[in-house]
Design a protein that fits this description.
about 250 residues; two-stranded antiparallel sheet; 2 strands; mainly alpha; globular; 10 helices
Length: about 250
């Protein structure tokens, strides 16, 4: 759950094309359709950013300075490989049986030939990573998004995906075979590694936004629309911040 929360916070600013919040004559942000809790959500974002500035970013910078890049890549590959069973479960629950087959092959090849996932040989074999989370599963079952919500640490979400975020903590069979301490360590290392990947991109996104909250809300929805199959494609790796407007 800790890793999922930090991951969600960092996924926020993927695409560009920012948006500005609607403000009244006093300069106070007014509620936007689909975001009835905007005032509270903005306060939560401020708290999230304070934690990032005080803890997450400095730790990520230290991790980058101490751990060589090839080692960081190997750690990242192992953490991704551990998540494949969770993706597989959601692929099956959504009836995406072809994706489930691809996910199974990825896990098999990376766990064996890739030495426990240290090397992502499946991608080299042309087997790209699939998406699959329980919020996506609930969407495939017909549940509506619900209001936008900014979660502590977890960042942008909506009511349906918040339920899915909690459920994802229980849908990976591997977590039941890993001691509690191991799961906590895995979550912390995964969060630090993800933050390290996004140091420059997140800085650029924040400094380039007139209204960071409104921009996150907009780009998060764009990102989620892609993950749900509503529109387009965002490339091979969707957990790294990328600003197409900066290209």
């Amino acid at each position: 759950m800790v890793q999922a929360s930090i991951r969600a916070l960092l996924l926020l600013g993927a695409l560009s094309l920012g948006a500005c919040a609607t403000r009244n004559a006093d300069g106070v942000a007014s509620a936007t359709p689909g975001d009835p809790w905007e005032a509270t959500n903005r306060d939560v974002l401020d708290a999230n950013l304070a934690v990032d500035d005080a803890v997450l970013k400095p730790v990520a910078q230290g991790y980058r300075a101490v751990v060589p890049e090839p080692v960081r890549t190997g750690v990242r590959n192992v953490l991704d490989n551990i998540q494949e069973p969770r993706i597989l479960v959601n692929n099956l629950l959504q009836g995406r049986f072809l994706d489930a087959g691809h996910t199974t092959m990825r896990f098999f090849f990376n766990s064996t030939v890739g030495l426990g996932g240290i090397f992502d040989v499946a991608t080299d074999f042309g087997i790209a990573r699939r998406t699959g989370d329980f919020g996506q599963t609930l969407y495939s079952w017909g549940l509506e998004d619900g209001p936008f919500v900014m979660l502590p640490l977890a960042g942008p979400s909506n009511v349906r995906d918040t339920v899915g975020l909690v459920a994802d903590g229980f849908t990976n069979p591997l977590t039941y075979f890993i001691p509690f301490e191991g799961n906590v360590a895995r979550a912390v290392v995964g969060g630090v590694d993800l933050r390290e990947q996004n140091i420059e991109n997140l800085d650029a996104l924040r400094s380039g936004s007139l209204d960071f909250y409104a921009r996150l809300r907009s780009v998060w929805q764009q990102r989620r629309d892609v993950e749900l199959g509503r529109t387009g494609d965002v490339g091979d790796r969707i957990d790294v911040l990328e600003d197409p407007g900066a290209r």
